[in-house]
Amino acid sequence: MRVGCPKEIKNHEYRVGLTPAAAREYVAHGHQVMIESGAGAGIDASDEDYAAVGASIAATAEEVFAAAEMIVKVKEPQPSEWAQLKEGQILYTYLHLAPDPKQTEGLIASGVTGVAYETVTDAHGGLPLLAPMSEVAGRLSVQAGARALEKACGGRGVLLGGVAGVASGRVAIIGGGVVGKQAAKMALGLGADVTILDRSIPRLRDLDDLFEGRVKTAFSTPTAVEEAVFAADLVIGAVLIPGATTPKLVTREMLSGMKKGAVLVDVAIDQGGCFETSHATTHAEPTFEVEGIVHYCVANMPGAVPITSTNALNNATLPFGLALADRGLAALTADPHLLAGLNVHRGKVTNRAVAEALGKPFIDAAEALKA
C-alpha cells in the first residue's frame, strides 16, 4: 500500500503521524511510504532520517494526498486537507467528530474511510490509541494550570505546593480516568491538595488504593462538583464519553461561586469540553477569562511536547496502522477493536455516538463495509 504522512498544519502542532522508526516498519512490511518534506521537523526528524529508512520525500502535502492510499496523521484534517481526501482512501488519525459538524460534512462529502484513533478499543474496554495522549494531556494540565494561576498570567497568584506555614493550592479533578489519574500524580508531586471526582465507585476505590489516601475522592454528583469547584484554585476537566460530546459539568452560573482568578483547564475540549463556558484555544493564545475565571482550553495540548507525544502515539498506533496497510478494509472486519475506530465510510457515519451527537443517520460499521 502507498502510505502517506503530511505535515500537520493545525496551529502550533509539532507532532507527526509517523516517526522514522515507524516508517521503517511500514517499509519492512513492503509498503511505499511518502513523507511530506519537513513533516518531522517538530520532533527533530529530518527528511534525510526518513529517506534513510526507505521513505520517499514529497515536496508538498498535495503530492501526499494525491498519491497515498492511506493517510496517517495526528490531528483531525483541516478544511484544506479534507478537500483533498477521496473515496477509496483510508484516513487514520484523531477525528473527534461529535463536536465538529463541519469536519464531519467534509469527510462525508469526500467518501473517505475514516478510522479515528480515539474510538479504537481493546479487550479490556480501554481506548489504547487515546490513552498515551491522555497521559500526556493529564500531566500537562497541571503544568498549564500552575502557570495560569500565576498573577502575571491572570490567575489568583497561588503556588500549588504552598510553602511552610502557607496552605497548598487546591486542585479538583473531574473524572478519574487516564487523564485524571495522571493529573493527580503531577498535582501531588507539586504538593497540592487534590480531590478527584468520578461516578464509578470501583474506580474511586482503585484511586484511593493507588494514592494511599493522599488524594481525596468523591462520588460525582452536582452537589459534590459544586463544592469541589467552589473550593478549588485549579479545576481540571478530565471527562470522556467515547465518541460523544462531553456533558457540561461546570455551568456559567457556577463561575460566580468560584474564587476570583481560579483556573479551569478543559482537557475534554476536543470532544466539546466539560465546562459550559469553554471554547477551543491554541498554544499561541491558550487562555481567556470569563467572569474573573481563567480558562485554558487548548485543543492539542500534547502538541506542546511533540517528541514525547509523537513517540508515545506511534508506539500505540503502529500495530493497528500496519494491520490496515497490510490488509486494507479486511483488517477492519477481522478485528472488532479496530472496527470500533471506523467513524465514516463512503459518505456514511458509522459511529453511533457521533451520529447521535450530530443528528446524522447511523449505519453499523460492519454493515457499511459489506455494502
Approximate strand percentage: 15-25%
Q: What's the overall geometry?
A: globular
Distance between the termini: 23 Å
Query: Biggest sheet: strands, sense, closure?
Result: 8 strands, mixed
Give the oligomer, counting copies of the same chain as homo and different chains as hetero: single chain
Using DSSP, what is the number of strands? 15
Mean pLDDT: 97
Computed CA radius of gyration, to the nearest angstrom: 21 Å
Low-confidence stretches: none
Short key terms for the protein model shown above:
about 375 residues, alpha/beta, eight-stranded mixed sheet, seven-stranded mixed sheet, 15 helices, about 15% strand
Describe this structure in words.
The chain has helices at 20-28, 47-52, 61-67, 79-82, 101-110, 131-148, 178-189, 201-211, 222-231, 252-255, 306-327, 330-334, 336-339, 352-358, 365-370; strands at 2-5, 32-36, 56-58, 70-72, 90-93, 113-116, 170-174, 193-198, 216-219, 234-237, 263-266, 287-290, 293-296, 342-345, 348-349. It contains 15 helices and 15 strands. Strands 3-2-1-4-5-6-14-15 form an 8-stranded mixed β-sheet, sandwiched between helices. It has a 7-stranded mixed β-sheet with strand order 9-8-7-10-11-13-12, with helices on both faces. Helix content is 36%, strand content 16%. The model has no long low-confidence stretch (mean pLDDT 97). With 371 residues, it is α/β, with parallel strands linked by helices. Strand 10, helix 10 (252-255) and strand 11 (263-266) form a beta-alpha-beta unit.
Layout of secondary structure:
Blueprint: E1 2-5, H1 20-28, E2 32-36, H2 47-52, E3 56-58, H3 61-67, E4 70-72, H4 79-82, E5 90-93, H5 101-110, E6 113-116, H6 131-148, E7 170-174, H7 178-189, E8 193-198, H8 201-211, E9 216-219, H9 222-231, E10 234-237, H10 252-255, E11 263-266, E12 287-290, E13 293-296, H11 306-327, H12 330-334, H13 336-339, E14 342-345, E15 348-349, H14 352-358, H15 365-370
Parallel strand pairs: 1-2, 1-4, 2-3, 4-5, 5-6, 7-8, 7-10, 8-9, 10-11, 11-13
Antiparallel strand pairs: 6-14, 12-13, 14-15
Helix pairs in contact: 6-7
